[in-house]
Specification:
Layout: E1 5-11, H1 19-32, E2 37-43, H2 55-58, E3 62-63, E4 69-70, H3 73-81, E5 90-92, H4 93-106, H5 116-128, E6 139-144, H6 154-167, E7 171-178, E8 181-182, E9 187-188, H7 191-202, E10 209-214, H8 220-230, E11 237-241, H9 249-255, H10 258-265, H11 277-288, E12 291-299, H12 308-320, E13 323-331, H13 340-343, E14 349-352, H14 361-373, E15 378-381, H15 383-395, E16 403-404, E17 414-418, E18 433-441, H16 446-451, E19 455-462, E20 464-466, H17 471-477, E21 480-485, E22 490-495, E23 502-505, H18 520-530
Parallel strand pairs: 1-6, 1-7, 2-5, 2-6, 7-10, 10-11, 12-13, 12-14, 14-15, 15-23, 16-17
Antiparallel strand pairs: 3-4, 8-9, 17-20, 18-19, 18-21, 21-22, 22-23
Helix pairs in contact: 1-3, 1-9, 4-5, 5-6, 12-18, 14-15
């Protein structure tokens, strides 16, 4: 068995350069060469995970199959490569320190003084090498969040320095920097890149590959200059310019020979061409679309990254339906009965978005009523599904005070209620129903027809559930419970068969979509919305 190779991806100059997209693209290309890969994200913040973070702080919280709340970059890893990430793929400073402190409290260190070097760095190295993972990978790609020089990321950089020394040519460093264009001077500036590399060198790490993030195309003289100033081979300096779609990045990287440079640097054979034809077919389809379909996202976070996986799932589903999905954000805090018709005008379908807490829920309920009574294709996700259930109770079952126990602790018509197992929990983080659970689909239902099978698995991230005490009333009035968790008899899917497409899922299907395997619910929803 070939020994594992390690790729460390870091960023300099500014954050948000797209390290996650680059890491995903490298993973995709290595897979196309026939190698097995995994990608992991190391975040320097102290939170144990991003589960308690407001989306404005860190974008959406992604959930792995084994129930770990993680950074949104893991969504990119899965969508690009089709791998299934687990809790081992997401590590924060908080998790590292907690593990070391727990060991110290147990007496594992035999009375030693606990220090950043070697105890913290050893724990980081152990996880970077995935010593607890029984699976063998040809390549383990590790992306470190934040920017070189951040005080929080110093222990991660020290761990990388040590690993590169220990592993020799089996470990390489890929550094992503920004090349700004100064309009007034009419030229690109490489000085920030030089400073960033110098910062890395001062930590004892010489980058093997440089990826230059740029809004415009860079000429070969500039790339040659960067190579010379930064001690990097010319064929290991590639540019990542702005492209119409993030899904074009792997092809752009392949065109510049990034995959070959990585294989050469890690001592792997580089003779064959990567098998990227299914990916190219997807891009061809994407570029050929003419028709546009407008889909509304009714939610409270006016921020692209807050609903990242939902947005990408819809865009990918559009490609498979030969149309371009144009997403329109509808702020649920501003939605009223008086303005809802105007807010949803011109939309072919509506997604009622997930979330937590009271803010903006009445707007979601108003939207659910309007789309139900006007037969507009509607997809409710997690809290969105719960709002569809509450709306139906208020306006069809006649319970004007119907609500979720989360929003109203004393309502007699608690159509959404907290599970028994959740009632005595006092901590916020990592205590919900998280990860993949089974769902049995009812024979003859729309959901069953869409999935094409009786049993499916979907990922969850919530605390409140459909209250089965009201189930018979819903079914009699026309809202069917068509997906049930067999272990706990919990309602996972509701739908109204009489409407064109009115389905709510208690789970997050967006976590299971990928470029080459779009999620069937999104594909069918866009298909019906397209009409």
């Amino acid at each position: 068995m070939e020994q594992t190779r390690y790729i460390f991806v870091t960023g300099g100059v500014v954050s948000s350069l797209g390290k996650g997209i680059i890491s995903s693209s490298i993973g995709k290309l290595l897979q196309a060469h026939g190698y097995s890969i995994t990608i992991q994200k190391y975040d320097p913040y102290i939170n144990i995970d991003p589960g308690t973070l407001n989306p404005y702080e860190h974008g959406e919280c992604y959930v792995t199959v084994d129930g770990m709340e993680t950074d949104l970059d893991l969504g990119h890893y899965e969508r690009f490569t089709g791998i299934r990430t687990t809790r081992g793929n997401s590590v924060t400073t908080g998790r590292i320190y907690k593990a070391v402190i727990d060991k110290e409290r147990r007496g594992d260190y035999l009375g030693k003084t606990i220090q950043v070097v070697p105890h913290i760095t050893d724990e980081i190295k152990r996880r970077m090498k995935r010593e607890d993972d029984p699976k063998h990978y040809d390549f383990i790609i590790t992306e470190v969040g934040g920017t070189i020089g951040d005080i929080e990321s110093a222990p991660f950089m020290e761990a990388i320095r040590q690993l590169r020394w220990e592993l020799g040519s089996r470990a390489i460093s890929i550094h992503l920097t920004y090349v700004p264009y100064l309009k007034a001077a009419g030229e690109f500036k490489t000085k920030p890149t030089q400073h960033s590399v110098k910062e890395m060198q001062s930590m004892g790490i010489q980058p093997d590959v440089l990826i230059l993030r740029t809004e415009y195309h860079l000429d070969s003289n500039l790339l040659q200059k960067v190579a010379a100033f930064c001690n990097v081979d010319r064929d290991c300096v590639v540019q990542s310019e702005d492209l119409p779609s993030i899904y074009e990045v792997p092809i752009n990287m392949e065109r510049q020979g990034l995959d070959k440079a990585i294989l050469r640097k890690t001592g792997m054979p580089v003779d064959e061409l990567p098998q990227m034809s299914p990916w190219r077919d997807f891009l061809t389809k994407m570029h050929a679309v003419k028709q546009e379909v407008r889909i509304g996202l009714v939610g409270k976070y006016d921020l692209q990254d807050a609903y990242k996986s939902i947005r990408e799932s819809l865009l990918i589903a559009g490609v498979y339906n030969d149309c371009k999905v144009k997403l329109v954000f509808v702020n649920s805090e501003e939605v009223t009965r008086e303005n809802i018709a105007e807010k949803l005008e011109g939309l072919s379908g509506v997604v009622i978005c997930p979330g937590f807490g009271l803010r903006g829920i009445e707007g979601k309920i108003v939207a659910a009523e309007y789309t139900r009574t006007h037969d507009i294709p509607t997809f409710g996700i997690c809290l969105g599904m719960q709002m569809m259930v509450i709306e139906f109770a208020r306006n069809v079952l006649g319970y004007a005070d119907a609500n979720s126990r989360e929003m109203d602790a004393v309502t007699p018509h608690n159509v959404i209620d907290i599970m028994e197992s959740q009632k005595n929990i006092t901590e916020m983080g990592g205590t919900m129903r998280l990860g993949a659970y089974s769902c049995k689909l009812v024979e003859g239902s729309r959901a069953r027809a869409i999935y094409g099978s009786e049993m499916v698995q979907e990922r969850h991230r919530h605390r409140y559930e459909f209250n089965n005490a009201f189930k018979a009333e819903y079914e009699a009035a026309g809202m069917k419970c068509t997906g049930i968790n067999p272990e706990n008899d919990l309602v996972e899917i509701v739908e109204i068969p009489g409407l064109r497409w009115y389905i709510g899922g208690q789970f997050h299907p967006e976590y299971s979509t990928s470029v080459l395997n779009p999620h069937p619910l999104f594909v069918d929803f866009v298909k019906v919305a397209k009409g």
